[in-house]
Design brief:
With 97 residues, the chain is of the alpha+beta class. The protein is built from four helices and four strands.
């Protein structure tokens, strides 16, 4: 499983219907599970981004399909990062020439 971090902002449509956001999150969690992944952590944030979500997904293709499906609703805009856990980070650094 790969880890991904999404930095999320509500669109105008999303903030207008912000009270529906918990229901949308439940749908997103079910979709992630259906696609073989998981929403590991969810945070409401204050600052440049409205939400931060950490996911596990089988691969980048699955994550891309997932993000496109979620984004098509129109309530959020995402910036997503691939995250490497410490053990993998250490392997990458150790393999440098």
């Amino acid at each position: 499983m790969s880890t991904y971090i999404s930095l999320i902002n509500y669109t105008q449509e999303g903030i207008t219907a912000v009270k529906d956001s918990p229901k949308r999150l439940s749908v997103v969690k079910r979709l992630a599970k259906k696609m073989g992944g998981k929403v590991k952590h969810f945070y409401l944030t204050i600052g440049d981004y409205d939400l931060v979500v950490i996911y596990e997904m089988p691969d980048e293709t699955t994550m891309a399909k997932f993000l496109l499906t979620v984004g098509a609703v129109g309530a959020i805009r995402t910036k997503t990062l691939t995250a490497f856990p410490e053990a993998e980070y250490r392997k990458i650094i150790a393999a440098l020439p």
